[in-house]
Structure formats: structure tokens, C-alpha cells
Design a protein that fits this description.
Beta-Lactamase; globular; ER-Golgi transport; 168 residues; two-stranded antiparallel ribbon; five-stranded antiparallel sheet; 3 helices; alpha+beta; transport; 35% helix; Trafficking protein particle complex subunit; 7 strands
Length: 168
């Protein structure tokens, strides 16, 4: 799986971060990136509304590391409804939404014929959770960063590239 791009979309659908991670690929314009972010946000919202309500969230007691669990007893993922992935012949797109509504969008090469779909999803989840961890450490802990505003931090960019080289 080759990682092409990473996008971070705020809770109101605005693009706050975009990084092309594969040099040599045709780049989209900043206008197209903004349109992509808004479209993904809208499709995610629609998918969330039409998702069956089988995954009800309830409070748990006695668990120190999780605040909530699914009705089937498993730990909650922050993306329990809505769009999780889009697959085409040319690319695959994976989406991870945090509990605060922030969306991390990963654009990758499509899975190969011999690649297991489950393995690819796990790999994309690993990258996205790593990006979320970096976001928490380098963006949210930066005293000069304003929430919901575009991210312009060189150290964050550097750590993203390191993560992608390590995991991707």
C-alpha cells in the first residue's frame, strides 16, 4: 500500500491540513482539495444519518481505560457510523473520525489482487491512528495553534513523513 495523500478536515467540513506524500504524482489544486474536503464531510454526514442504529453507545462501569463500549461489549471506535473507506481502481480512501468530529483522510494505492482486504484496512487504521497520535502530540499541545484553524507546523510535517516511511 503506497500512501498518496493525507487530509485533515475540521468538524465543520473545512480543510485544515493537506500533505502529498508521494512525489511525482499529479497534484490537485488547493481549490480541488477544499472541494474534496467539503464533499467528504457531506457524504460522511449523510452516511451517518442512514447507518442503522445497531451500534448503540452505552456507559460502562469498572473499566479504567475506556469510557464507553458498544452494546456488544467491545471497545468503541470513534467512527461507529458514517463513511469508513472508498475503494476505486485507481486509489483507496480511508477515513477516521475522532469523537470531536475531526476527520483524518488517507488516500492510498488500491489493494493488490493478493492483498487481503482485512490486512489493508488494518494497515490504514495503523497509519491513521499514528497520525492522530502525532496530531495530539504536536498540534494540540502547541500553545500557538488555534483549534479548527489550518495546521502550519514544520515539526508536524516532519513527523508525518517519518510515520509514513515507517508504517507505509
Amino acid at each position: 500500500m503506497t500512501i498518496f495523500s493525507l487530509y485533515i478536515i475540521n468538524k465543520s467540513g473545512g480543510l485544515i491540513y493537506q500533505h502529498d506524500l508521494s512525489p511525482g504524482l499529479a497534484k490537485i489544486t488547493s481549490n480541488d482539495a477544499l472541494i474534496l474536503a467539503g464533499t467528504i464531510h457531506g457524504v460522511f454526514a449523510i452516511a451517518s444519518k442512514i447507518t442503522p442504529t445497531a451500534l448503540k453507545v452505552s456507559k460502562t462501569s469498572g473499566q479504567s481505560n475506556t469510557l464507553y463500549s458498544r452494546s456488544n461489549g467491545g471497545a468503541i471506535s470513534s467512527n461507529t457510523s458514517g463513511l469508513r473507506s472508498v475503494e476505486t481502481e485507481k486509489f483507496s480512501m480511508y477515513i477516521f473520525q475522532t469523537l470531536t468530529g475531526l476527520k483524518f483522510l488517507l488516500v492510498t494505492s488500491p489493494g493488490g489482487i493478493n492483498a487481503s482486504s482485512n490486512d489493508i484496512n488494518k494497515s490504514a487504521e495503523n497509519v491513521l491512528s499514528g497520525v492522530y497520535s502525532l496530531y495530539s502530540d504536536y498540534v494540540m499541545k502547541n500553545p500557538f495553534y488555534e483549534v479548527e484553524m489550518p495546521i502550519r507546523l514544520d515539526l508536524f510535517d516532519k513527523k508525518i513523513v517519518e510515520l509514513v516511511n515507517k508504517l507505509g
